[in-house]
Amino acid sequence: MTEYDVIIVGGRVAGAGTALLLARAGHRVLVVDRCRRGSDTLSTHALMRPAVLQLQRWGLLDAVAAVTPAQQRVVFHYGDDRVTLDVSRSLYAPRRTVLDPIIATAAERAGATFRYGVDVRALLRDGTDRVIGVRLRDDGGRIVDVRAPVTVGADGRRSLVARDAGAAVTRAGTGAGASLYGYWTGIQAAGFEWCFRPGRSSGLIPTNDGRVCVFASVPAARFTAELRHDVPRGLHRILAETSAAVAARVAGGTQVERVRAYPGTAAWLRRPWGPGWALVGDAGYFKDPTTAHGITDAVRDAELLATALDRGLRGVVPMVDALARYERVRDELSIPLFEITDALAGFGWDLAEAQRLHVAMSHELQREVDALAALPLPRSAEFASA
Ligand SMILES: Cc1cc2nc3c(=O)[nH]c(=O)nc-3n(C[C@H](O)[C@H](O)[C@H](O)COP(=O)(O)OP(=O)(O)OC[C@H]3O[C@@H](n4cnc5c(N)ncnc54)[C@H](O)[C@@H]3O)c2cc1C
Questions:
Q1: Bridge-partner residues for 217, per DSSP?
Q2: Residue 17 Cα: closest atom of ligand 1
Q3: Are 205 and 250 spatial neighbours (Cβ–Cβ below 8 Å)?
Q4: What digits encode the pLDDT tens for the residues 278-290?
Q5: What lines the ligand 1 site, CB under 6 Å?
Q6: pLDDT tens across 8-37, in order?
Q7: Residue 139, phi then psi, degrees to nearest 5
Q8: Alpha-carbon span 208 to 212, nearest angstrom
Q9: Phi then psi dihedrals of residue 20, to 5 deg
Q10: What is the pTM of this model?
Q11: Of 61, 214, 254, 334, which has the highest C-beta tally within 10 A?
């Protein structure tokens, strides 16, 4: 008998979300992360409708809304034209320093154990090649083996678990945009504002502490050729190219954090499970940030995976069937948006095509909301008997 039922590598949105639901269902969960609790990560943080729904279903939305401004409006700037959408449910963009600890704290309250400053070095396997745990370097520098029936890789884009497990790529994208972003105060934003001109995009995302995240995106090749050596100037240049009005508003504000850059990576879907292991979040499914949907995927798939593992661990269905269903449902919900995101990230669109892709994206978000709303609520009693 091992001390834990599930070891989760990575304690941010995907890992903490999976831990929360498994712990609520009564499973013994260990989460390890090499980072500091509450630290930031390279990511903007606009939440799409399904992510807000997930936080509400998990009982965490009030904690987010207590410190994060609610957005009632999304404004799309297509060249000089403007399309304004008033949303029926408020949207939020909590910093990762806010969101990730809220989910982790809830998971700890449900009984999960979190250990930070712990670096997983390798997967452990038995004689049949089944994954049976991890070899890690703990926060005191000791190398320790920890065993469990299931190891989950929620360890992000450069996932060691995916690599060590040999998770096959089942779909690969081609588009890759680079993103540059920083934080300003003293900027009026009408809500989430997204600006598009052929070959570039930019926008404003209001967030915690009166700050606004100002971002810009271009094809990865342009970033490498032109912008990477002076990222702050690159951000201002793309802002000015995309929307003079938004650039002027930013110029009137005060920059309060350095500008960061993400150079761009093409998307992938990986097979997210095998004997003794599973993947969730970016580790199993990554796509370009242009559709601001990675956190949404992470909290959606955390629930799909936790449900599968719960059913497998309790013996309701064989684990392989539970995990095969997880992959099927994840892919069914993901592939249309994977393709839309890839087309947007390729920057081959004109403004009419960008609008068409955004309308298609909106339909996909609604489909996702409907699918999530139909799942049994993950409160321990109902969830464990589902
Ligand atoms: C520039 C940019 C902008 C983005 N903007 C948005 C947005 O606006 N909205 C949105 O929804 N999504 C956005 N995304 C996507 C979003 O950031 C990711 O989808 C999300 O962070 C995935 O969460 P995760 O929990 O899977 O992985 P991560 O957040 O990457 O967390 C993985 C964790 O695993 C830990 N880890 C990794 N390896 C090990 C190891 N060997 N041992 C121990 N710990 C380990 C890391 O320390 C890390 O804390 C953006 C991404 C980028 C790059």
A1: 179, 201
A2: 25
A3: no
A4: 999 999 999 999 9
A5: 9-10, 12-15, 32-35, 41-46, 119-120, 154-156, 160, 179, 262, 281-283, 289, 292-296, 298
A6: 999 999 999 999 999 999 999 999 999 999
A7: -70, -10
A8: 8
A9: -55, -50
A10: 0.96
A11: 214
